[in-house]
Backbone:
């Protein structure tokens, strides 16, 4: 159980930088840490089931259903005025992994549209992301023209956008790209499905140690 002082301190969406360093670095009680370690595993779990178990500083980042791109950009600008930069690592067609194919409702190993990026503050990757969509539904949306633009910005401009419940895992996000940034480790991963009409895209996001360090989580 998270103590009351921690819950109150982290209640705001992007209030982290406004808080003192000592508040952010205050260690959770040992009992809380043990409970988190035993409850949060490497397989996917609904984020909602981990409220009060997950470290309070991480909770708004992993469970929020609004635009992560906007949240990251805001947090970066509060640090030094420098906004988010999208680094494109891969954009192609290739096979979906078994769990990804199941989420998309397609046969295992079927080829899909794949996009992998690093969301960076300067040259430092805070989040790495892997997004996939069925080929027959992706082609009509000119997603190949995104380049180093933000998929999140495009998605959240769609008026009929819906988002599934968010799942969370402690397993690292693995990318298919061979670029050096694709080897960035992640501490937490989350995934959800966005739907816009018949178009559906699975978005998986891995939060890196540099993100944790920058926000003192």
Residues:
């Amino acid at each position: 159980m998270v103590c009351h002082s921690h819950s109150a301190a982290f209640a705001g969406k992007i209030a982290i930088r406004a808080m003192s360093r000592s508040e952010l670095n205050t260690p959770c009680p040992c009992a809380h840490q043990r409970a988190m370690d035993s409850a949060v595993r490497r397989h996917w779990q609904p984020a909602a089931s981990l409220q009060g178990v997950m470290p309070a500083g991480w909770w708004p980042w992993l469970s929020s259903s609004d635009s992560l791109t906007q949240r990251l950009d805001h947090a970066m600008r509060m640090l030094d005025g420098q906004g988010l930069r999208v680094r494109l690592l891969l954009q192609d067609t290739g096979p979906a992994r078994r769990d990804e194919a199941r989420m998309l409702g397609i046969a295992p190993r079927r080829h899909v549209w794949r996009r992998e990026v690093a969301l960076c503050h300067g040259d430092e990757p805070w989040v790495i992301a892997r997004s996939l969509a069925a080929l027959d539904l992706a082609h009509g949306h000119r997603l190949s023209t995104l380049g180093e633009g933000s998929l999140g910005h495009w998605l959240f401009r769609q008026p009929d956008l819906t988002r599934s419940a968010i799942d969370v895992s402690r397993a690292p996000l693995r990318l298919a790209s061979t670029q050096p940034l694709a080897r960035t480790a992640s501490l937490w991963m989350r995934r959800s499905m966005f739907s816009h009409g018949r178009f559906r895209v699975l978005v998986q996001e891995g939060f890196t140690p540099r993100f944790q360090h920058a926000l003192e989580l």
